[in-house]
Amino acid sequence: MKKGHQVTMKEIAKKLGVSVSTVSRALKDSPELHPDTKKRIVEMAESMNYQYNLLAQSLRISKTKVLGVIVPELTSHFFSSNISGIQDTASKRGYNVMICQSNESFEQEKANLRTLVAAQVDGLLISLSRETKSYEHLHNLYEREIPFMMFDRVTEEIPVSKVTVDDAHGAYLVVDHLLKEGCKRVAYVSGQEDLYISKKRKEGYLKALLDNGKSLEDAIIYVTDLTSKGNEEVALKILSDSNRPDGVFCMIDPVAIDVMLVFKENGIRVPGQIALAGFTNNPTSGVIEPSLTTVSQPGYEMGVIAANHLLDQLDDLVSTEPQSFVLQTTLIPRNSTKKTSL
Amino acid sequence: MKKGHQVTMKEIAKKLGVSVSTVSRALKDSPELHPDTKKRIVEMAESMNYQYNLLAQSLRISKTKVLGVIVPELTSHFFSSNISGIQDTASKRGYNVMICQSNESFEQEKANLRTLVAAQVDGLLISLSRETKSYEHLHNLYEREIPFMMFDRVTEEIPVSKVTVDDAHGAYLVVDHLLKEGCKRVAYVSGQEDLYISKKRKEGYLKALLDNGKSLEDAIIYVTDLTSKGNEEVALKILSDSNRPDGVFCMIDPVAIDVMLVFKENGIRVPGQIALAGFTNNPTSGVIEPSLTTVSQPGYEMGVIAANHLLDQLDDLVSTEPQSFVLQTTLIPRNSTKKTSL
Prior knowledge:
The first copy, chain A, contains 13 helices and 12 strands. The first copy, chain A, has helices at residues 9-16, 20-27, 35-47, 54-61, 77-92, 106-118, 136-143, 167-180, 196-211, 228-240, 253-265, 283-287, 299-314; strands at residues 66-71, 96-101, 123-126, 148-151, 162-165, 186-190, 220-223, 247-250, 275-277, 294-296, 324-327, 330-332. The radius of gyration of chain A is 24 Å and the shape is elongated.
């Protein structure tokens, strides 16, 4: 332990075997707790020479009525839907919203966090960049007792509330659909394999294969770096494979669209020769020909739920005990997988 | 004049017949000005009992290295491109960016402004909401000497620097193209007629008609409220017109895409029977069939130019004299207007 180290609520919680939020409520003299519990915690805090974080307290009291949001990118339809949901909810409850984008950069994400904290936002909603693999900045935020929660790109390392989408189930739905439409060999085009969504959607892909009488040996997985060039290379690789798949599930719609354009350029009939599906329901997917089967994620609802829960916490309407919200996805069958009617 | 009214730099400038930025530089004791000019301004300021805005000064000195951005909406490809340009430029110069969206609401725009000013941003980049018809909030910002400039949706009422796109010329290019491809009767589908871009693009539309030997009587103008429902109604109206146009220029791509879908549903060949073009070059426009002829706007470059100019002003590399940057657009001819080869 460093010299001059300040005792944290986490350390008090650990000593007593209670949760951090219980410690927090005890030190705030919350009426929700039993007086004995409160007494035990306050005495422990005093014995450990705990210093109440006066700055954080004063910030909490002089509310700015502003929420800070950090998203990886704003050009993505999904994240801009999240933000619309957050903004509409915040407005209804008298809050304004300031947004920073990390551009998928870990350094930028940390700079965003410093900026929004310096701007004295009342709370933060954070979706992690692809590069973020260590969480010291979030631990620090947590220790400073600045209220925040995470959405979509989350980590289990920090005990705050989270809103995510059931990625594995969404992938299951679409792969199951391809197999039910009569595809014999369904491939999965994945993004970089260490991405959370790559893994989760692979899980759903494999489970759908197994549930439809296939084995793990039947899995055919291609990996793209998610650039248009990478997607086109994968499409050409699929076409040149000796044992070509007759159904392809792409991790996200932009990949499926690039793949479709290459298939069409090469005279492949979609879905006649190869059925194709994506994930996310981008605006383009409904107007491309053939229209793209996909999975819709409740991006707007995710923003609403995240903002409402954080504001409920700020207004002491709910406890700060971490909650986990997992939202369901919906299969949107379109022409790109309509094998049965052809 | 209200009681307790504080004398502004604008009033001093008016009295002396000099620009506000000259007054500002004189009061900051800038070496750029002739000592006599400086002396004359300082004496006038004293005689008028001008109070230096100490708060603004102190904010200016303790830089936060943050730029605030206000945009009408984040789901628009154009504005998210602007933001990418702003963000990349700011990052390179050691600044971070906080973004607020007005959701096309005047009240929200004013709330955003208050939020960003309270967060002590060093400067602001503002694009106005559709609803904004009065400018007191911007006059106020100007009076408080908080550096800002405007982009895309601007007003001439405030003497700050602006970056816009040459809308009229872009519309001219696409209408000229439709006529050169052999269209005899080209219609314009406009948004609400009081919108700045509706007017500017109409200007270009009419000029292209005139330059191609048509008269103003040949103009055929439809108006949509820019909702999908409104766009579809206009498309049906076009189809039922006794003297149907054989070329249609839609004010923005999303309108052209809705119109195209209705045409196709009604068995109209595009471009065979009606050629169709849009404006903005949305990602969908390149993948729809037939691919949509459109005009690309330099959204990213607009962001770069706006951010660089504002940062140049903040760093005293350029004067605060208002500049006007007008960026050129590019015609992107695609299949939806290819009449000649059919």
